[in-house]
Every structure is written in structure tokens, then in C-alpha cells.
């Protein structure tokens, strides 16, 4: 299409990229209500992977969605469109990657702008902002002034490029309108800067978030993983138990039949008059109840599907049970809210520990990874951790660092890095958002 990189040019760019020892990746995440952009420099294979975080920017829309008790897709789309150019500018400005703000862009032809306008025809505001930004900066590259004053590290010798080598973009699963903004933004940048794109599965990002460990404040590596590994993926949109036989094979063992666990936390929070996102709010109340040792048999909630002979989950009945209880009790006192929160969190933890235990026994898994927004829940993590210590001493448990539990662009960059190594590039004009994308 027009002057966008031709398939052979893209292929050529892809081939160049995978021959580089170190890669700089710009990643974009807009699947739900977090807009995030990161730039990493990565190298190595799974066993010796290292990455330096050059920039990691995030804007959460959570407070805007509070009045809806959950994420409102059209609002999310509008906010992503507003946030993306801002975050990109910030990511470039905060990094060692130059933004030539004083120089007029000389590499953005009228033809490229026309293609970009076409790509962003459903996001006219984004097109306006991005075209201004693109006229102020050129393709991100290492600041030549700074690099002159610094001795080039030996492993830079083989580089064919000093700047960003590829774009990694979350193309699913998630809310379609939200995903499309990010996908189209990535396509536009790919045209402007002639960079190849790799799509990234958001859930694979969460899998990597569990394995990412900080070497120091700016550098991460991956934990050593023994296979088979189980991944318990628990977020606002997903609740899945996935078996990994190796780094790139995913088999779905079970999933929720109805609501995702994070969605249940959010809905129950709403029933208790708490703000979105509900997970942290419920958790705070539950902790208070435990501290006060509040207990009352009238607060017992069901543990749906806990004893079924499979790895599936169900959380909508649990939420309905809370609704019934709340209706019966009428206006809730603080203590009652705390007790319901505790019972709800206990019910979820009971279900997860039971299903995880069954899955480890049945599969002989040697590793358990927990990922997704609900992996920020300390109580659930502690319960699973106790189970592993007590019953499965040989299994290693990996929980994301706090800053990587929720949606973020760093995990997308890392998953993208391995997609680049596996040559999973997609031509920008073939790239689509896939709301129901799966891992398996
Ligand atoms: O992974 P994530 O940020 O977005 C999706 O991909 O869905 O997950 C968001 C979900 C929300 O439902 C939120 O309530 C839940 O994660 N969450 C928690 C906690 N922190 C966030 N749930 C339970 N306990 C928490 N501490
Ligand atoms: Zn997520």
C-alpha cells in the first residue's frame, strides 16, 4: 500500500532485526484501561535473557471508569487515543533515545502521512496529535551527542541500527475498541519509521511478568524455569489454568465458565459500595476483618465448582450469593462489609488452592506461574504459597513484582522480544485487533 514498507522491505527489516545481538523494542499496550508504552533493550535467550528498561510509561484510566463500576469501552478507546502520543513523547524524552525536537522532520513524506491518515481514519484526533508529533521528531535513535561522549559497549559493534528495531503491540485479547487504537497507532508508527511489527498476546505478557526478576532497578532477567509449568492467569477478563510443556507450547487445562475472577472482585466491590477497581478495595476490607478476627456463620459463601473433576472455574454464582446476602442484610455496617469481603476472598482462595493442587498432582508440574491483575492479591498469593511449601516442595512458585501484576508495556516488550526471535512479524496492513485471541 503506497509507500509503506513493501513486503520484501519488511522481510528485509525483519531479517536485519533478528541478526542484531541486542534489540531495542518499543511496546504498546491498550487492551483494557491502562495505556502503556515502554522501550527496552534486550538480548539473550530464555536462559540468559537480560533487558534494560529505557522507558516505561503508564497512564491508568481506572478513576474515570469508577462511575461505571467497570471499564466502559468507548471511554477507554477515547482515553487511549488521547494518551498514546503523550506517552510516546514522554517515553522518548525520558530515554537515551533522541527526539530531534529542534529539527524539522525530513523523513515523513506526504505519501506516508496519507497512509497514516488512512490507518487512523477512525481516530481523527489521534491522527492530528500524532502528525504534529511526527513532524517534530524523527525515527528514534541513540542520541549522537551522548554516544560520542560514551565509549560504545563491545556488544554494540555488530548492531546495524542504534535506534528502535521493532514495535511490539498487544493485539488481543481485550476490549476491541481499546485494542484497535493501540494496533492502529503501532501501524502508523511502523509506516512513519519503517519499523517491523510483532503482535503480542496480552496473556503471554502476563505469563512473562511472573518470570521477570529485577537484576537492579533498571534491568530484568528471567527466572530459571523447569517444565512442565502451570500458569494461573487471573485478571479482569480471564481466569485460566494453562499448562506449558516448554517455552512456547500452551495447553488450556481449564477456564472460567462465566465471570473472570477480577470481574467478580469488581462486581462484589460494587455491591459493597466500593470503588472500581474492586480487587484492592475488597482486599483491604478482608484484611481488616482478619485482623479483628471477625467471624460469623451467617456470612458463609459457596465455593463454586471446587470439587468438580476438572480445572474449570465459575464465579458468577459467588457474586450472586453476595447479592442475595446483601439484599437480606439491608444497609451494611462496616463490620458486615469487612466480613463479606473476607468470606469472598477466602472462597476465591479456597477454589484456587484446590484447583492448583489438582493440576500440579495430575500434570507433575515443576513450576507454578501466577499472572494478571489479581496476582496483586497478597492473601491469595500467600495461600497458594503455603500450599506449595506444604505439599509440593519441589515446585517453584513465581509471582510478578508488584509493578508488573497489572497491565503494563514492559511485559509486552519482553513477550514481543521472543516473538521477534521467532520471526512472528506481521505486515502492518494485515495486523488486526483480536478481542478473543487465545494462547493455545
Ligand atoms: O490484568 P489486569 O490489570 O487487566 C486485565 O487484563 O483484565 O487485571 C485487572 C483486574 C481487576 O478486575 C482488578 O480488580 C483486579 O485485577 N485486581 C485485584 C487486585 N488488584 C487488581 N484483584 C484482587 N486483589 C487485588 N489486590
Ligand atoms: Zn491484563
Describe it.
This protein has 440 residues and is an alpha/beta fold. It is 43% helix and 19% strand. It is built from 14 helices and 14 strands. Strands 7-6-1-2-3-9-8 form a 7-stranded mixed β-sheet, sandwiched between helices. The protein has a 5-stranded mixed β-sheet with strand order 12-11-10-13-14, sandwiched between helices. The protein has a two-stranded antiparallel ribbon with strand order 4-5. Strand 13, helix 13 (378-391) and strand 14 form a beta-alpha-beta unit. Helix 12 (334-363) packs parallel to helix 13. Residues 1-12, 14-18 and 143-160 have low confidence and may be disordered. The structure holds 5'-O-[(R)-(carboxyoxy)(hydroxy)phosphoryl]adenosine (KG4) and zinc ion.
Number of H/I helices = 14
Helix content: 40-55%
Number of strands: 14
Average pLDDT reading: 90
Question: What proportion of the residues form beta strands (DSSP E)?
Answer: 15-25%
Order of SSEs: HEEEHHEHHEHEHEHEEEEEHHHHEHEH
Largest sheet: 7 strands, mixed
Distance between the termini: 32 Å
Radius of gyration: 23 Å
* Helix-strand category: alpha/beta
For the biggest β-sheet, the strand order reads 7-6-1-2-3-9-8
Shape: globular
> Which ligands appear in the coordinates?
5'-O-[(R)-(carboxyoxy)(hydroxy)phosphoryl]adenosine, zinc ion
Low-confidence stretches: 1-12, 14-18, 143-160
Brief digest:
The chain has helices spanning 7-19, 62-65, 73-93, 110-119, 124-136, 144-149, 176-193, 202-211, 261-271, 278-292, 316-329, 334-363, 378-391, 410-421; strands at 23-29, 34-43, 50-60, 97-98, 141-142, 166-172, 197-201, 212-216, 219-222, 229-234, 239-246, 249-255, 367-371, 396-398. It is α/β, with parallel strands linked by helices and 440 residues long. It binds 5'-O-[(R)-(carboxyoxy)(hydroxy)phosphoryl]adenosine and zinc ion.
Amino acid at each position: 500500500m503506497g509507500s509503506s514498507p513493501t513486503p520484501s522491505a519488511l522481510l528485509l527489516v525483519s531479517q536485519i532485526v533478528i541478526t542484531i545481538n541486542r534489540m531495542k523494542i518499543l511496546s504498546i499496550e491498550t487492551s483494557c484501561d491502562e495505556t502503556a508504552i515502554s522501550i527496552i533493550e534486550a538480548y539473550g535467550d530464555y536462559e540468559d535473557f537480560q533487558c534494560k528498561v529505557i522507558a516505561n510509561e503508564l497512564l491508568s484510566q481506572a478513576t474515570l471508569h469508577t462511575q461505571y463500576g467497570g471499564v466502559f469501552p468507548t471511554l477507554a478507546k477515547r482515553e487511549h487515543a488521547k494518551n498514546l502520543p503523550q506517552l510516546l513523547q514522554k517515553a522518548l524524552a525520558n530515554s537515551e533515545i533522541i527526539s530531534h525536537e529542534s529539527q524539522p522532520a525530513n523523513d515523513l513524506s506526504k505519501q506516508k502521512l496519507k497512509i497514516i491518515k488512512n490507518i487512523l481514519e477512525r481516530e481523527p484526533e489521534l491522527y492530528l496529535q500524532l502528525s504534529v508529533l511526527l513532524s517534530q521528531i524523527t525515527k528514534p535513535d541513540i542520541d549522537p551527542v551522548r554516544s560520542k561522549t560514551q565509549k560504545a559497549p563491545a556488544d554494540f559493534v555488530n548492531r546495524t541500527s542504534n535506534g528502535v528495531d521493532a514495535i511490539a503491540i498487544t493485539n488481543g485479547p481485550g476490549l476491541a475498541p481499546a485494542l484497535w487504537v493501540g494496533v492502529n497507532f503501532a501501524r502508523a508508527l511502523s509506516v512513519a519509521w519503517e519499523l517491523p511489527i510483532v503482535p503480542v498476546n496480552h496473556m503471554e505478557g502476563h505469563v512473562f511478568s511472573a518470570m521477570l526478576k529485577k537484576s537492579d532497578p533498571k534491568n530484568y532477567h528471567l527466572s530459571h524455569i523447569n517444565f512442565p509449568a502451570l500458569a494461573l492467569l487471573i485478571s479482569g477478563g480471564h481466569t485460566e489454568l494453562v499448562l506449558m510443556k516448554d517455552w512456547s507450547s500452551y495447553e488450556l487445562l481449564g477456564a472460567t465458565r462465566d465471570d473472570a475472577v477480577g470481574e467478580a472482585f469488581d462486581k462484589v466491590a460494587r455491591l459493597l459500595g466500593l470503588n472500581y477497581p474492586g480487587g484492592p478495595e475488597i482486599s483491604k476490607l478482608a484484611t481488616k476483618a482478619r485482623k479483628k478476627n471477625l467471624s460469623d456463620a451467617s456470612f458463609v459463601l459457596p465455593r463454586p465448582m471446587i470439587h468438580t473433576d476438572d480445572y474449570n472455574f465459575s464465579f458468577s454464582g459467588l457474586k450472586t450469593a453476595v447479592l442475595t446476602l446483601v439484599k437480606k442484610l439491608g444497609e451494611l455496617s462496616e463490620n458486615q462489609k469487612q466480613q463479606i469481603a473476607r468470606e469472598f476472598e477466602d472462597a476465591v482462595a479456597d477454589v484456587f488452592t484446590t484447583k492448583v493442587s489438582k493440576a500440579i498432582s495430575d500434570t507433575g508440574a515443576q513450576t507454578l506461574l501466577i499472572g494478571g491483575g489479581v496476582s496483586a492479591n497478597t492473601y491469595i498469593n500467600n495461600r497458594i504459597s503455603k500450599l506449595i511449601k506444604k505439599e509440593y516442595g519441589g515446585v517453584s512458585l513465581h509471582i510478578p513484582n508488584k509493578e508488573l501484576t497489572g497491565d503494563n508495556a514492559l511485559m509486552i516488550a519482553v513477550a514481543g522480544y521472543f516473538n521477534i526471535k521467532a520471526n512472528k512479524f506481521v505486515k502492518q496492513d494485515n495486523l488486526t485487533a483480536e478481542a478473543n485471541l487465545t494462547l493455545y
